[in-house]
């Protein structure tokens, strides 16, 4: 009898211990800064804390455009997760292998013409500069980005998605209110981002890019993700390298923007917001508040004016995940 009682006590203690550790594990999954992969070769995710931030820029901010106003309060009620890096070419290649996804065979690439030009035969597999699997995938349209997150949802059973524009800026700021997450002064930007730097200036012929006067070591090319320092949330390349698609349909101001960090979407939208600037965009485009409609306009080519099918050598994606 005593032996049975001892066993019951031991088993009860084990059940309590199991419950405690299960609760602990669940808590760890939403602990800000925690990282995880939901499958081998899925993007590494990092938990971003709940909180609030002023989104947009003040009229006094240097380099600011009117589409960054009005400055407004956004409250993110729950922690969520973001890929620590821009989605890489290797990660995207796995998606293509598993789904047979066709990403198009025409991309705006750098050929020396202003802003690049659309060239048949160019794609994420050949953006006209050398890349390996650790570089961010480029030449991916908004539809490609959505097909990628849709595949991640099916593969992992978890609610992967693109970020809302507000979530993106909240994450890029990582608690800061300065122009960049590393401060207001851009003189050290080459320590934090791949931008049009002296390397790019020296490597192209008569290019009209607006260069900055420091050396990041990468010319007309992406840099491997995570080459540069992370922000306070542990995210890399939120400034520079490649523009990143968000869920939102572009509007030319934040008037009427939701205060809860949700996306502003519209059916049949053809101008989706991109964030973060790039290897070729002037550095003021890499500020935390900078926003752009993600297409080239005025070239008389419908395929360049529709974000759902628009492909560019300086444009990729980052993924988000709702934590349940
Ligand atoms: Ca560069």
Which labels suit this protein?
324 residues, alpha+beta, paralog of FGE (formylglycine-generating enzyme), 5-stranded antiparallel sheet, 4-stranded mixed sheet, 5 helices, 13 strands, 21% helix, globular, binds calcium ion
How are the secondary structure elements laid out?
Blueprint: H1 2-29, E1 35-36, E2 45-48, E3 51-55, E4 72-76, E5 80-83, H2 89-99, E6 106-109, E7 117-120, H3 142-156, E8 160-161, H4 165-173, H5 198-203, E9 243-249, E10 272-275, E11 291-292, E12 315-316, E13 320-322
Parallel strand pairs: 9-12
Antiparallel strand pairs: 1-2, 2-5, 3-4, 5-13, 6-7, 8-13, 9-10, 10-11
The structure holds calcium ion.
Question: Care to describe what's here?
Answer:
This protein is α+β, with helices and mostly antiparallel strands. The chain has 5 helices and 13 strands. 21% of the residues lie in helices and 15% in strands. The structure holds calcium ion. The site of calcium ion has 8 residues, from helix 5. Calcium ion (CA) is lined by residues 194-195, 197, 199-200, 216, 218, 279.
